[in-house]
Write a structure and sequence with these properties.
Blueprint: E1 16-20, E2 34-41, E3 44-45, E4 48-49, E5 53-60, E6 63-65, E7 67-70, E8 77-79, E9 86-94, E10 100-107, E11 125-131, E12 149-153, E13 158-166, E14 176-186, E15 211-213, E16 227-236, E17 241-251, E18 267-276, E19 287-291, E20 296-298, E21 304-310, E22 317-318, E23 325-327, E24 333-337, E25 346-355
Parallel strand pairs: 6-15, 8-16
Antiparallel strand pairs: 1-2, 2-5, 3-4, 7-9, 9-13, 10-12, 10-14, 11-13, 14-16, 17-18, 18-25, 19-24, 20-25, 21-22, 21-25, 23-24
Length: 356
């Protein structure tokens, strides 16, 4: 906005004094405020000081729209297959010189690079935006409420926004889902209601409060578009379990323990070897469930041994504790829970049965 000021002046020296109003802030002088600049001209006539002549200029501060979104921690969000509440966190800051509403939208690309490496290869389920209601920076289910916009975000203020999604159970270790959060500047209207999308003032400066987009380019949006976007990855961390089941005859009615064979009446030892390959997540309390074949009968006198190892020479199960269980009726089911299985670790469960 510009206003011309006319100054009446007589002969004599001119002494100009300028005053300005407005206090600078991080976001700049508040949009819509008036900055007054007054000039005073002192002069004399015939050696007699005359009344000073003053003139003022007023401008209305225009609205500069700019915002940022950052991902605290700047790292992929580790998730598990089947996780129903997978949360990634963003911090939205209004760096404009006016309070604004910000519409929030979530998008998922089809393929392409991840935000932190790798390649997007799946979509998270039903992503929704939640506002950090208690400002603790941590998603609290039932406290932080779903919201499609930030309401009346003051200049220089920040709010934490969570994207909460689900992870399909079939995803495997290393899978990546990229999510993009975009905030769009909107008019700050009535509290609790989302304002209209802002448009930039076109053409020459006007006498009213103009709107100027000054935002930078985000992850998926252009500079000076009244938006900003940032991305994060859901990185699947899954256990890489494999199971090997072997058996060996311990004794039989004809040969005893000397070169026993799998004939009726023989005692068979079943060895179940569970391995978690390197590079994945820890498998917590893996539970082994083994329904016995109808042609066998459980050997209760031996028990069910868990957390054993494999003998490097014989390849047979050994060690462990007899803390597994058998549940009938016959033929019944053998179960046992192993200790947490870290990447690269192997544990066993083994028991004996009689061949009918």
């Amino acid at each position: 906005m510009r206003v011309a000021a006319r100054i009446a002046a007589g002969s004599g020296a001119l002494c100009l004094a300028l005053t300005a109003a407005g206090t600078a802030q991080a976001a700049g002088t508040t949009a819509g405020s008036t900055v007054v600049n007054t000039v005073s001209v002192d002069y004399s006539v015939g050696g007699i000081a005359q009344t000073a002549v003053n003139a003022s200029n007023s401008i209305v501060v225009d609205r500069r729209v700019t915002l940022t979104i950052v991902e605290p921690g700047n790292a992929a969000t580790s998730v598990s297959p089947g996780q129903t509440t997978a949360v990634t966190t963003f911090l939205v800051t209004n760096t404009s010189n006016a309070p604004l509403d910000f519409g929030l939208t979530v998008a998922q690309p089809i393929g392409g690079p991840g935000a932190h490496g790798g390649t997007d290869n799946f979509d998270a389920g039903a992503p929704a935006t939640f506002i950090d209601s208690n400002a603790n920076g941590v998603y609290d289910a039932g406290t932080d409420l779903a919201a499609a916009f930030l309401d009346e975000l003051a200049a220089d203020a920040s709010r934490t926004v969570f994207i909460v999604s689900g992870v399909p159970i079939a995803r495997i270790n290393g899978d990546i889902a990229v999510v993009t959060l975009t905030a769009t500047a909107r008019e700050a209207g009535a509290a609790g209601a989302q304002g209209i999308v802002l448009t930039q003032t076109s053409g020459a400066n006007t006498a009213a409060m103009d709107t100027v987009f000054a935002d930078g380019a985000g992850a998926t949006d252009a500079a000076r578009d009244g938006q900003f976007s940032a991305r994060d990855d859901y990185l699947v961390s899954a256990a890489l379990l494999s199971v090997v089941k072997t058996s060996r005859p311990i004794s039989d009615p004809a040969n005893g323990a000397a070169n026993p064979k799998n004939i009726p009446g023989a005692t068979i030892e079943y060895c179940i070897q569970v391995t978690n390959a390197s590079g994945g997540a820890t498998a917590v309390a893996p539970t082994v469930t083994d329904p016995l074949p109808a042609q066998t009968g459980f050997n209760a006198g031996f028990g069910v041994f868990v957390d054993g190892t494999i003998n490097a020479t014989t390849g047979f199960c050994e060690g462990g504790t007899a803390t597994g269980s058998f549940v009938g009726p016959a033929p019944g089911t053998v179960t046992g829970t192993l200790a947490n299985l870290a990447p690269g670790a192997t544990r066993t469960l083994y028991f004996r049965a009689t061949l009918n």
